[in-house]
TrEMBL record:
InterPro entries: BUG, Bug_dom1. It comes from Achromobacter piechaudii. It comes from the Bacteria. This is Uncharacterized protein. PANTHER family: BLR1237 PROTEIN, TRICARBOXYLATE-BINDING PROTEIN. Keywords: Signal.
Length: 335
């Protein structure tokens, strides 16, 4: 009887030890996983096709972050639907730290107020990591289109409509164009493209007479005389291209509302582990603090920013409110 009791006692003790070991393993798993992250390649989704300014910026960031994280960061282009296809794919991705998004403010702060059927909520479905860089948009023209922006507007008001290519429907570029049309009465025909690259390419070939896009893809073409820079869509001239006037300078009060910069941010799906968010943010901030990276971004026509976490989230919230007000004022809607 004593032996039977002893066997039962030993069995109970073994069971308790097994449970304790299992609990200890679970508790220890969190820090262990945090210590090993990232232990496989990270997928960086770009919400536009290859060849545009956002693609070049993402590839520069991915390469440099790979060095900091000691793990490959692989760029994957998913363009279409004004950046919404790529953005939604990240929203639906597993929130494990191995999928991140490089997106611009069109799909983050314009589409949600311009499209009624946007299938994601930026403030709920995404975690802002770092605001990477920002640049003004430029209104440029094919060399066959002569004169200043004021001349172009006058021509478009007098029965000679002009086609204007822009990245996406529901972008900051389209919003700026719609405000310009509303303020001046110019007949400017919006021609949407899947990204800045195709829009600039068609402007170079004369398939569209004008183009509005970010500085990175346009500045090299303006510098070589293949396109003419007419105006920047911000209140002050940009030091990256000080020779190009603002819309307000050229058009006066009618141009003061035509303000639309393009910025590029790094985000992750909501629910991404805090440890992964911290490592991704830290790596991106280190990269953006390097003089050689800042210089390369300047060469592309954009300024490094490096605004992280809550600051970036506040910027998104503020722009959503502003753009919503503009859409209501000018009655701009896509669907």
């Amino acid at each position: 009887m004593f032996d039977s009791f002893a066997r039962l006692a030993r069995k109970a003790l073994c069971t308790q030890l097994a449970v304790l070991a299992a609990v200890t393993a679970v508790v220890a798993a969190g820090p262990a996983q945090a210590d090993t992250y990232p232990d496989k390649p990270i997928r960086m989704v770009v919400s536009y096709p290859a060849g545009g300014g956002i693609d070049a910026i993402a590839r520069l960031l991915a390469q440099a972050m790979s060095t900091e994280l000691k793990q490959s960061v692989v760029v994957e282009n998913k363009g279409g639907a004004a950046g919404m296809i790529g953005t939604e794919s990240v929203v639906r991705a597993r929130a494990d730290g191995y999928t991140v998004l490089v997106a611009g403010n069109p799909e983050l702060t314009v589409n949600p107020v311009l499209y009624r059927d946007t299938r994601y909520d930026v403030t709920r479905d995404l975690v802002p990591l770092v605001l990477i860089a920002e640049s003004p948009n430029i209104i440029a023209a094919h060399p066959s289109v002569q004169g200043t922006l004021k001349d172009v507007v006058a021509r478009a008001k007098s029965g000679s409509p002009l086609s204007v290519g822009a990245p996406g429907t529901g972008s900051t570029h389209q919003l700026a164009l719609e405000i310009l049309k509303a303020r001046t009465g110019a007949d400017l025909i919006h021609v949407p493209y899947k990204g800045a690259g195709p829009a600039v390419s068609d402007a170079l070939g004369g398939q569209v007479q004008m183009v509005i896009a970010g500085l990175p893809p346009l500045l090299p073409q303006i510098r070589t005389g293949k396109l003419r820079g007419l105006a920047v869509t911000q209140l002050t001239r940009t030091p990256l291209a000080p020779e190009i006037p603002t819309v307000g300078e050229v058009l006066g009060p009618d141009g003061n509302d035509v303000i639309a910069t393009t910025w590029y941010g790094l985000l992750a799906p909501a629910g991404t582990p805090v440890e992964a968010i911290k490592k991704l943010q830290d790596a991106a901030l280190v990269v953006l603090g390097k003089p050689e990276i800042r210089a390369k971004l300047a060469e592309m026509g954009t300024d490094a920013v490096g605004l992280a976490g809550e600051g970036f989230a506040a910027r998104i919230k503020k722009e959503l409110e502003r753009n919503g007000a503009l859409v209501r004022e000018f009655g701009v809607r896509v669907n």
